[in-house]
Amino acid sequence: MGEFRGLLIPSLCFLFGAAAVLSELACKDSHSGPTYESLQSVFDKKPFRPATNLSNPTVTNISFTLYAVLGVNEKSQILTTFLWLRLYWYHEFLQWDPEKCGGITKISLPVEELWMPDIIVYEFIDEDKSQRCPYIYVNHTGQIRYDRMLRVLSSCNLEIFNFPFDVQKCSLTFGSYMHTIRDVRVSLALPIEQISENSKKYLETSGEWELVKIQGETDILKFGIDEWDIITFWVTIKRRPVLYVVNLIIPSSFLMLVDIMSFYLPPHSVDRASFKMTLILGYTVFLLIMNDLLPSTANGTPLIGIYFSVCLALMVISLLETVIITYVLHHSAMKYRPVPRLVRVMVLGYLARLICYTRPPSQPETPSNNITTGKTAHNSGAKTQSSEFATLFGWFPVAMADPQEKMKNVEVSQASPELQQICRDLGMVRAHIDSLRLQQDLEEEWIHVGYVLDYLLFRVYLVLITLYALVITCMWCIWYNL
Hints:
Blueprint: H1 2-21, H2 36-43, E1 58-73, E2 78-90, E3 106-110, E4 119-121, E5 135-139, E6 143-155, E7 167-176, E8 184-188, H3 192-203, E9 209-223, E10 226-239, H4 242-261, H5 271-290, H6 303-330, H7 332-335, H8 341-354, H9 367-393, H10 403-408, H11 417-480
Parallel strand pairs: 1-8
Antiparallel strand pairs: 1-2, 2-6, 3-5, 4-7, 5-6, 7-10, 9-10
Helix pairs in contact: 4-5, 4-6, 5-6, 6-11, 8-11, 9-11
């Protein structure tokens, strides 16, 4: 092995030394450009890096134009782009004098016949299936230009929390696959600003994504004792959110607006509860439909998903509020029970003034006192009407007469049994009417308690929705203008 290496190295040195002397291609008078024989001698050297001195690295200049963003797969964290890649390098054996070759300064040659730098994108995760260009251009100075359309499926750490106002920043790292920094160096063929402007010009008519800027930097990748020269481009793209705003946010806002307006339905009616339940069912169907439009990833949940969940939670809270108010207004046990004093002071006193709640003019100001007053008035009215009716028939009931009247009307009390039965029936009717009026007064007082609670909870609900909408809107506006 040592003898073979000793013979191989001098042979290579002699070969490249002769090539250094005869690096200029030969031309004939009848030919325009280098001759086939001279080119064939270059093609035979394809396995070797085209440098007369192998200690000097081959410099590869890189530039690209971002034509389109074909897709962003948030779940797999894959960015699919379409690039026009352009490489420049020098082939020291492909040089000729244009004056001796009929003024030809540029020729095209097949790619398979020449050495090429193994420049790849380090973020590649799939095979490139784009069409390859079979030819390259060679300048008379030995500069080679290779253009290639490249479909890049690259891994990218996608941040979807700001969806649909998200901005993604993905890297495309170009470098040699096998050749270290001693053999192949990479550099920029164009300034970063020009690469960014060219890409913006072609991406203006793109679909969902808009190019913000392209940044680049050169670096050295170290792996063990070997070093590779690389160029990293940072591609910053921003999503156009119009589609998602129209299809997701606006319909959700309309449903929330309908839920707010449902508070103006009468709280003592069960139609409000059924209406809210139907609205929640419709919103759930909306969430199932829009689930396909939302990105999904294991890293986190987008803010818009949290927004929809909170909206659904607010709808459920509004339904629970309606259930509580309906319970207060329709529970049979509360109708025959006076409002506790603490509830009357807190709800009908402080809370009613806090939310500026006023009773209708026909209602009394102090319901508890008026219940007692009404009861007394009802009893006195019953006595008066019963006395008048008894006097009309010549009989006065003993239970409702004073002691002196009992003595004066002893004879009258000996009336016929029919009149006594009528008076007893009238007393029962009057007592029933008094109980109905008392029950009505209690029901009205509980209704006012329910109205005050309903107004209070509605205003709290409205404040929560307003604050939530302002926070979400401000956050999205800030992210969109970044």
